[in-house]
Amino acid sequence: MSTYQILNPATGEVVEEYPTATNEQIAEAQQRSHDAFGPWAARPVAERAAILNRVADIYAERADELAEIIHLEMGKKIAEAKGELKLCELIYRYFAEHAEAFMADEPLRGTAPEDQAFVRRRPVGSILGIMPWNFPYYQVARFAAPN
Question: Number of structural domains, the chain?
Answer without folding.
Answer: 1
